[in-house]
């Protein structure tokens, strides 16, 4: 199956990256959904209707002249969208997410935060099956699909030549209070990854601002790229364990936690 997953990803990666550039949806997530929902492009719905994401025809789709065919899914004879080509299916999938208020929170996430996106899509009820987010994450990780998200970040630098670097937080939320936290930094064509931190949140407010503050502090003080991303993500996850709006930590404390790995700093 992994071989077929790779064949699918190789064939449709450019479609997914184009959607990432247009809408900010991680290419890895789009590809993983396509792999899962279309059985690597081999489902009857994919082969006959070019529908790779299992999207059903709404009344507005039909009213606007959209084609559909009948297939049995949760119920017999349900109406599924039919497309002229696979590219149209990818475009409609992006619009389906973008224009549906259930998925609005996902678009507050970074376009390379595939774990946050898969959790958000599952939470919003994209599929009725259990562990949808976990299944998508497994497909992404077993096939290295996140490399396409990294290519998307590199594309940002090509599109905006005055952009000297790109940084992002990657989150894997396991419960309301628990999750994993890491950062990546792209500088001069090279990626720098922080360690993954397991965090128990006291108050999930201000962590993004703390990450940005850590970046600014690191840039002002001339930290090298690896120290910069390590410092910034440490400042960010420390804020999760501090109540209220302000990240009441200093450089000395952040550097100590970077060295020791300690994370119990509630105050």
What is this structure, in a nutshell?
50% of the residues lie in helices and 13% in strands. With 267 residues, it is an alpha+beta fold.
**pLDDT < 50 runs, ≥5 residues:** none
Q: Per DSSP, what share of the residues sits in E-state strands of 2 or more residues? A: 5-15%
Shape from CA axes? elongated
**Main sheet characteristics:** 4 strands, antiparallel
* Succession of helices and strands: HHHHEEHHHHEEEEHHH
Mean pLDDT: 87
Helix content: 40-55%
Q: Could you tell me the radius of gyration in angstroms?
A: 20 Å
- CA(first)-CA(last) distance: 49 Å
Helix/strand-derived category reads: alpha+beta
Number of helices: 11
Number of strands: 6
Explain what you see.
- It is built from eleven helices and six strands.
- By secondary structure, the chain is of the alpha+beta class.
- Strands 3, 4, 5 and 6 form a four-stranded antiparallel sheet that branches.
- Strand 1 and strand 2 form a beta hairpin.
- Helix 1 crosses helix 2, helix 1 runs parallel beside helix 8 and helix 2 packs across helix 7.
- The protein is elongated.
- The model has no long low-confidence stretch (mean pLDDT 87).
Topology of helices and strands:
Blueprint (H helix, E strand, L loop, with lengths): L1 H22 L3 H11 L6 H6 L9 H5 L4 E4 L6 E4 L4 H14 L14 H10 L8 H12 L2 H14 L5 E9 L4 E10 L2 E4 L3 E4 L6 H14 L4 H15 L11 H10 L7
Antiparallel strand pairs: 1-2, 3-4, 4-5, 4-6
Helix pairs in contact: 1-2, 1-5, 1-8, 2-7, 6-7, 9-10, 10-11
């Amino acid at each position: 199956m992994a071989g077929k997953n790779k064949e699918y990803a190789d064939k449709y990666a450019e479609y997914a990256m184009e959607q990432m550039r247009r809408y900010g949806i991680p290419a890895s997530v789009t590809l993983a959904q396509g792999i899962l929902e279309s059985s690597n492009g081999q489902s009857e719905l994919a082969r006959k209707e070019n529908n790779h994401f299992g999207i059903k025809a709404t009344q507005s789709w039909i009213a606007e002249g959209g084609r559909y065919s009948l297939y049995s899914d949760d119920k017999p004879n349900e109406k599924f969208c039919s497309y002229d080509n696979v590219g149209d299916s990818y475009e409609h999938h992006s619009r389906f997410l973008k224009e549906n208020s259930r998925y609005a929170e996902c678009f507050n996430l970074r376009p390379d935060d595939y774990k946050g996106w898969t959790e958000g899509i599952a939470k919003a009820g994209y599929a009725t099956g259990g562990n949808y987010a976990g299944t998508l994450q497994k497909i992404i990780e077993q096939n290295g699909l996140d490399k396409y998200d990294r290519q998307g970040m590199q594309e940002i630098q090509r599109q905006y030549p005055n952009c000297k670097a790109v940084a992002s937080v990657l989150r894997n939320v396991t419960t309301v209070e628990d999750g994993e936290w890491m950062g990546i930094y792209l500088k001069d064509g090279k990626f720098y990854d922080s360690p993954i931190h397991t965090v128990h949140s006291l108050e999930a407010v201000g962590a993004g601002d703390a990450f940005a503050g850590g970046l600014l502090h690191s840039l002002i003080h001339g930290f090298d790229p690896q120290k910069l991303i390590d410092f910034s993500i440490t400042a960010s996850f420390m804020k999760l364990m501090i109540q209220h709006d302000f990240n009441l930590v200093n450089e000395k404390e952040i550097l100590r936690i970077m060295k020791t790995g300690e994370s119990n700093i509630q105050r």
